[in-house]
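Holo prediction — 3-methyl-2-oxobutanoic acid.
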Amino acid sequence: MSITNFRTTGAGAASGSRAASKVTFQTLQEKKQGHRPISALTAYDYATARLVDEADVDLILVGDSLAMVVMGYETTLPVTVDEMLHHTRAVRRAVKRAVVVADMPFGSYQNSVAEGVANAVRFVKEAGAEAVKIEGGAVRCELVERLTNAGIPVVGHLGLTPQAVHRMGGYKVQGRTQAAAEELARDARMLEAAGASVIVLEGMPMEVAAEITAQLRIPTIGIGAGPNCDGQILVFHDLVNLSFSPPAKFVRRYGDAAALFRSAIESYRRDVEERAFPSEAESYGLAVQANAASRQH
Ligand code: KIV
């Protein structure tokens, strides 16, 4: 009996022909060893998570960036554990193949290791996350070790860490001096030693990210960290032009959902105003046979 691909339902069945097997952290580790790049994207709801999963992206992060791109806040700081749980559940219901990682929001793990563990358990138990992501280096090692020992894989996050926006004095590239670069590399090694499964490297010189990637056994996933990480991640809304802000240097827009949605919404409004929608064919009538009516929805 094969134990590697025993699914009979799910995304493959739902989309007709797919039979891709479930991605695990073991898969990501094997990808690093085989020099095969890891793809990752954020998603925050059922519809987009389904599209991302059906496109065979390896890892889906329910990022706290949802505070900005979904909820309209200026920073990631205000989003709460309950709000993150709500979105993680929606993503979980959509995803069959990718690894689902939930971002621990600001304030959910900084107070104490015990509170961090308790909140991480909620993401796994109440929302179906397979791992949690936490920002920071050496200072997070105790928490990483506790979570790993509790059976919860941890994704670390180093460099430009948005929850530290005020300490950094803005969203600035990190690790630009020799000392800062060495500190990032040391943090990365310590996170790996503490048990982290993957580390996100955000907003740092590509040379620094390449060096960290070479030093680690676990995969790195870059965002604004150059091409030599083991994988790449982008914020979904940046990818499809739904973030309502000029793109950062590292963003590549692969589609224009804003233009697509605008045109559909404007066409709909025009049709309503000109009484062109709905048509008779899109309406119910009284003069239908009972059996025909029973087939209508
Ligand atoms: O919250 C987020 O979306 C993230 C990614 C940018 C890595 O942390």
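READOUT: The pocket of 3-methyl-2-oxobutanoic acid is lined by residues 42, 61, 63-65, 103, 200, 202, 223, 233, 235 (CB under 6 Å).
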